[in-house]
Design a protein that fits this description.
extended, alpha+beta, 10 strands, 41% helix, 7 helices, single chain
Length: 246
């Protein structure tokens, strides 16, 4: 069982603990591996000197739920906090858990890889699609135009009339746009507008972000954010959409 939980910062923590206790109690009855992940807005790094945070952690421990993330998930020049986490009652399998170095948000993305589950992996990947070429679209229009819809039975019953219409429509649709199955090919994900120069600038921006995380001080933060802002402006992205979380 997998659940994603977000606790708003202004949500009363004591009340949240009571509600969380009820939730964990009921899902534990299923006797299944459970993973609760998300932004809890509870800094586990302060559990020893913040009573409510300690109660939050003790509640999960008492229900046999343990955190998989042990490093700060939000880092600023003045503070580091562990507010994003994955809690699980699965103590039998082996995990690799951690954080991605990514500045898409002011929170570092968290992850956990579980070993012990067998997965059937196809050597050759296939995908299905409908060929909606201009030729097939014109064929579809002609086929629809050739139908005398007044001849369809069931006009006295709206439900039957709609069912007959849909059946006829879908038969033409499937005839003109049949499903095709093709072998997937590796595609280059880089878009034409994403130039080599832009790619180089993004790598430098990521390096500055990594330097800031390794040494979170005001200078490194300023250098990183200033370069990121200039990169966004030069690349043509709306600044208010990309930078609003900062």
């Amino acid at each position: 069982m997998i659940g994603v939980i977000y606790r708003p910062p202004d949500k009363n923590l004591s009340q949240f603990i009571i509600e969380l206790d009820q939730l964990v109690y009921y899902i534990s009855k299923e006797n299944k591996p459970v993973f609760l992940l998300g932004d809890w807005n509870v800094n586990l790094m302060s559990h020893s000197h913040h009573q409510a945070t300690g109660e939050f952690l003790e509640l999960l421990y008492s229900r046999m739920f343990f955190p998989l993330i042990a490093r700060p998930s939000r880092i600023t020049a003045h503070k580091a906090s562990l507010i994003d986490n994955i809690f699980t009652n699965n103590t039998l399998d082996h995990f690799i858990s951690g954080l991605f170095l990514n500045d898409i948000s002011d929170h570092l993305p968290i992850f956990s890889i579980i070993f012990g589950y067998k997965q059937n992996v196809e050597k050759d990947k296939y995908f299905t699609f409908r060929d909606k070429s201009s030729t097939n679209i014109e064929k579809f229009k002609l086929q629809l135009g050739a139908v005398n819809w007044a001849d369809l039975p069931g006009y006295q019953d709206p439900n039957q009339a709609y069912g007959n219409f849909l059946k006829k429509y879908m038969s033409i649709y499937n005839l003109c746009f049949p499903l095709k199955k093709v072998k997937a090919k590796k595609q280059a994900l880089r878009k034409p507008w994403f130039t080599k120069g832009l790619s180089k600038s993004v790598r430098k921006k990521n390096l500055l972000h990594k330097n800031f995380l390794n040494d979170p001080n005001s200078h490194n933060e300023l250098v990183y954010k200033r370069y990121k802002t200039n990169l966004i402006i030069q690349s043509g992205f709306p600044r208010e959409c990309t930078m609003k979380r900062e």
